[in-house]
Amino acid sequence: MNTHDQPHHPRETTVLDAVPRGLLIDGTWQSAAAERTFDVEDPSTSTTLCAVPDATADDALRALDAADRAQSSWASYPPRHRGEILRRAFETITSRHEDLSLLMTLEMGKPLAESRAEVTYAAEFFRWFAEEAVRIDGDYAVSPNGSGRMLVTRQPVGPSLMVTPWNFPMAMGTRKIGPAVAAGCTMVIKPAHQTPLTMLALGEILTEAGLPHGVLNIITARHADEVMRPLITDPRARKLTFTGSTQVGRTLIEQSARQVLKTSMELGGNAPFLVFDDADVDAAVDGAMLAKMRNIGEACTAANRFYLHRDIAEEFTDKLTRRMRALRLGRGVGDNVEVGPLIDSAQRDKVTELVDDAVGQGARVLTGGKAETGTGYYYPPTVLTDVPPSARLTSEEVFGPVAPISTFTDEDEAVTAANNTEFGLVSYAYTRDMPRALRVSESLQTGMVGLNQGVVSNAAAPFGGVKQSGIGREGGKIGIDEYLETKYIAVGGL
Ligand SMILES: O=CCCCC(=O)O
Fold first, then answer.
1. Residue 252 covered by a domain
2. Which pLDDT does position 6 carry in this prediction?
3. Quick check: is 314 catalytic?
4. What is the reported pLDDT for 46?
5. Residue 126's CATH number
6. Of ligand 1's atoms, which has the minimum distance to the CA of residue 300?
7. 278-305: per-residue pLDDT in tens?
């Protein structure tokens, strides 16, 4: 047994046993019609945690039937009541914070401190949209020629399909479910096959909070395409929202074209992290640790490329390397663990391949650089310097704890390098020069900028990207718009 290979503690078993193991369809927990199941794995030990139903296309269509049947009564539910359901769910998540954090760590691997932060972040989307449900507004105006009136109202889009990722199993659910509930949309949601348990626990919380039957339907499935394609091509579905890779997002957009679905896509990133010569280097290193290591680097927001002004490069690199080397790796439930395993062997292999490619092209390893052996999918915090622009990890999303460093000599060079990517989710910039801060922020081709800040995520802010990082915004004042259609009523006869 190596250091990561611990037996499950009785509390872990209790938390796992409390999760409903079914498909949530029309308010009841059901097994898959074909009685199929698939195993959920603990990535920190590569052992099976439990099995959940493996839905078929028929199960998925039953879920959509339920969502479709519930849509019109749900749309006319008082907004205040919809908000109160979200508020109650927020309170329940808060009261079960510790158990939900443990559950998430078990199925996803991230350290408990990270899971706790995610549960808090996830709950905030329910609190935020509980408050937004009653602020769906409209317009009344006299027509320009004075002879009529123009009414503008906003109505729920309708049954919404949701596909959520494994890296933030709860927050990416609440960021979609919160505005859909507030707007009056029904849902069919498919969590990632690696992390279905957190979503099932969330389904139970929303049911307890009084969400009417059929409003939220959850299907767990091993193979996404088998269940999602029939839903996306069904005329009753009106919207598709997805968080995940750009590659899968492109396919879903293509499939959505058939029914002209309204789509929201929160896709991949390749975040540049710029540190200028006037920056507070210690603050930049703190920010870099967050931007790089939050969620073990398995985040679309993760800093993927570091560009340092040559005058501060050595100081920043030394300090970052020391901090990365000192991080404690281990099973997420362990005391003081700061870096958990990657989600699966495919992800660990991909990180290995990208680091090997960079090293093969001349990059130098300052710390880390080799996958751990033994059970669990561990990759150590890694810093690479002298990374050439041709290295794959400057254009591909690493999704792991690897910080590749390059240097620059002037602002234009830094911004050009930062923008040299098909992605446009988020960038980070550290500078104390205010005109430069604003100039650079405006020039960076990303939907979000962390200015002297290593985390941008906030339920009250519009999260989303430009270029191939996505379509639409989640969270903030405009997050609910993704679930609303604008209707104009031309009033005559006056
Ligand atoms: O991988 C990307 C999910 C978004 C995480 C966040 O909201 O910070």
1. yes
2. 54
3. no
4. 93
5. 3.40.605.10
6. 1
7. 999 999 999 999 999 999 999 999 999 9
| Residue 252 to residues 192, 193, 210, 422, 482, Cα–Cα distance (Å) | 15, 17, 32, 18, 17
User: How many angstroms separate the alpha carbon of residue 167 from the centre of ligand 1?
Assistant: 8
Question: Pocket of ligand 1, candidates 108, 128, 242, 300: which has the most ligand atoms within 8 Å of its Cβ, to mutate?
Answer: 300
Direct distance between the N- and C-terminal alpha carbons of the chain, in angstroms, rounded to an integer: 82
Pocket test for ligand 1, best of 115, 167, 292 (most atoms within 8 A of CB): 167
- Same structural domain, 98 and 25: yes
Tell me the mean pLDDT in the region 67-95.
98
Query: What is the value of ipTM here, to two decimals?
Result: 0.99
Q: Please give the residue range of the domain that contains residue 225.
A: 11-267+470-488
Q: Residue range 313-331: average pLDDT?
A: 98
Same domain, 153 and 244: yes
CA distance 473 to 252: 17
Question: Hey, what are 371's tokens?
Answer: 């996958």
Residue 5, pLDDT > 70, answer: no
pTM for this predicted structure: 0.97
- Asked if residue 460 belongs to a domain, the reply is no
460 C-alpha to ligand 1 centroid (Å):
14
Which residue's CA is the closest to the ligand 1 atom numbered 6? 457
Q: 68 and 206: one domain?
A: yes
300 Cα–ligand 1 center, Å: 6
Q: How far does the centroid of ligand 1 lie from the alpha carbon of residue 141, in Å?
A: 40
Average pLDDT over residues 115-133: 98
Give the count of domains, the chain.
Answer: 2
Q: Are residues 56 and 186 in the same domain?
A: yes
CA-wise closest residue to 79 among 28, 119, 130, 6: 130
Pairing status of strand 262-266 against strand 484-491? unpaired
Q: Which of 12, 41, 118, 266 is catalytic?
A: 266
Q: Which residue has its alpha carbon closest to ligand 1 atom 7?
A: 457
**What is the token pair recorded at 214?**
């059929």
User: Which ranges constitute the DSSP H helices of 400-463?
Assistant: 411-419, 434-443
**pLDDT tops 60 at residue 4:** no
108 within 8 A of 41, measured Cβ to Cβ: no
| Entry field: residues in the chain | 494
Q: Is the pLDDT of residue 275 over 70?
A: yes
Cα within 13 Å of Cα(46), Cβ side: 14
Kindly give the number of the ligand 1 atom that is closest to the alpha carbon of 121.
Answer: 7
Atom from ligand 1 closest to the CA of residue 455: 8
In a domain, 172, yes or no: yes
Do 174 and 320 fall into the same domain? no
Residue 494: the pLDDT is 87
CATH number at residue 396: 3.40.309.10
Do both 127 and 194 map to the same domain? yes
Residue 455, number of CB atoms within 10 A of its CB: 16
247 and 372 in a single domain? The answer is no
Residues 188 and 84 occupy one common structural domain: yes
Asked whether residue 494 is domain-assigned, the answer is: no
